[in-house]
Amino acid sequence: xxxxxxxxxxxxxxxxxxxxxxxxxxxxxxxxxxxxxxxxxxxxxxxxxxxxxxxxxxxxxxxxxxxxxxxxxxxxxxxxxxxxxxxxxxxxxxxxxxxxxxxxxxxxxxxxxxxxxxxxxxxxxxxxxxxxxxxxxxxxxxxxxxxxxxxxxxxxxxxxxxxxxxxxxxxxxxxxxxxxxxxxxxxxxxxxxxxxxxxxxxxxxx
Length: 206
What we know:
By secondary structure, the chain is an alpha/beta fold. It has a domain at 98-205: SGNH hydrolase (Rossmann fold). 19% of the residues lie in helices and 17% in strands. The chain has helices at 31-40, 111-114, 147-161, 185-195; strands at 76-79, 87-93, 96-99, 105-109, 136-138, 172-177, 200-205. The strands form two sheets. Strands 5-4-6-7 form a four-stranded parallel sheet. A three-stranded antiparallel sheet has the order 1-2-3, with no helix packed on it. The longest helix has 15 residues, at 147-161. The radius of gyration is 32 Å and the shape is globular. The N and C termini lie far apart (93 Å). Residues 1-31 are annotated as: Disordered.
């Protein structure tokens, strides 16, 4: 008869406590660590795609303006009473109807708006808003936030109006400041809105 000899080399634990399970690894990676690892490997870092949340309750987008109007895309379309069946782009400010070519611009900001870093500061974008330089008042202050103009905007506008063909009337106002430079921004916007209730105010954040 065959005799089966048990294998005594196999030991089975009796009432052994199982070690606690390790937590599931976090699937989200730190973008800074990922960038550092790819940089060490000599690869070019590619940032992850940005997810944009969609608000279903958002207001519908307005109808697009006709093509070919240039800067007038931000203005309203009105009918010319002198020309039957025709339309032109213009803005009514202070009871005065102006065409796109006659709009007056006021820009406020810091060094970028002033034109720092350019060979000729008058090539900065504020001076390109209109073909007529007399329609543009660039009151940007280098290395300064919105706090200064929020306190002195009246004197700044009045002094600018003393120049040749100057005026204190503006149809479009552009504010350009750094994202963290909010000190005085809301006060400045409120004073401008009170002074120019019909003007278009545009805020650009760097």
